[in-house]
Specification:
The longest helix is centred in the middle third of the chain and has 18 residues. This protein is an all-alpha fold. α2 packs antiparallel against α8, α5 crosses α6 and α9 crosses α11. 57% of the residues lie in helices and 0% in strands. It folds into 2 domains: 86 residues, Endonuclease Iii, domain 2 (Orthogonal Bundle), CATH 1.10.1670; 102 residues, Hypothetical protein, domain 2 (Endonuclease III, domain 1), CATH 1.10.340.
Length: 221
């Protein structure tokens, strides 16, 4: 877990964590990341590439990248110019190519070639912010943290689970309301729900099983 102290919850009402989590548990019992990966190295690369980019696009991009640079050492020995053609179809390929190479170099130089497990250590790597660090530790090691991306941020607000103004404030609210044992699952529950049901435009409220507990749905009726 990160050494950063959690701030006080931003929620000003009593959110319906219990029935919402129960619904997810009953209806989406085995959620998982939609990014394809076979190792910690592949996961951190995929998550860095996924910033402001779809998982589908990342999954189309990474096979050639992993074939050319199969491990941290080979990526650390590369240049951004060598990486760029392999990832040019993702968003911001120039900066991501530079971040990937710099990330791999730092892993080799400071972490013995092993992707670190601790959030604070992960956040020292180029291209790795708090969300990416939380994804890596949650997916790989079931750490009880919630990674807040645009989907999680939106769904948490619509369901009334958080009123936080920043991703970190939403993270604090969610971790305050979700038991540790369910946090790794909840990360995927909220992302997938936002991706396919509670979409940014035209959310599918009519087919959403969470409508009875949803603040957004109640206010829009």
């Amino acid at each position: 877990m990160s050494s950063l102290l959690k701030k006080e919850s931003a929620v000003k009402h009593k959110p319906a964590f219990e029935p919402i989590l129960a619904w997810f548990e009953a209806n989406r019992p085995l959620p998982k990341s939609e990014l394809n990966f076979l190792s910690p190295y592949q996961l951190i690369v995929a998550v860095i590439l996924s910033a402001q980019c779809t998982d589908k696009r990342v999954n189309q991009t990474t096979p050639a990248l992993y074939a050319r640079f199969p491990d941290v050492a080979s990526l650390a020995a590369a240049t951004a110019e060598e990486v760029y053609p392999l990832i040019k179809s993702v968003s911001y390929p120039n900066s991501k190519a530079a971040h990937l190479v710099a990330m791999a170099q730092k892993v080799m130089q400071e972490f013995g070639g092993e992707i670190p497990r601790e959030i604070d250590a992960l956040m020292t790597l180029p291209g790795v912010g708090r969300k990416t660090a939380n994804v890596v530790t949650s997916v790989l090691y079931d750490e009880p943290v919630i990674a807040v991306d645009t989907h999680v941020f939106r769904v948490a607000h619509r369901l009334g689970l958080s009123d936080g103004k920043t991703p970190y404030a939403v993270e604090c609210d969610l971790e305050a309301g979700i038991p540790e044992a369910l946090r790794a699952k909840s990360h995927h529950w909220l992302i997938l729900h936002g991706r396919y049901i509670c979409t940014a435009r035209n959310p599918k409220c009519g087919e959403c099983g969470l409508a009875p507990y949803c603040r957004y749905y109640a206010q829009s009726r």
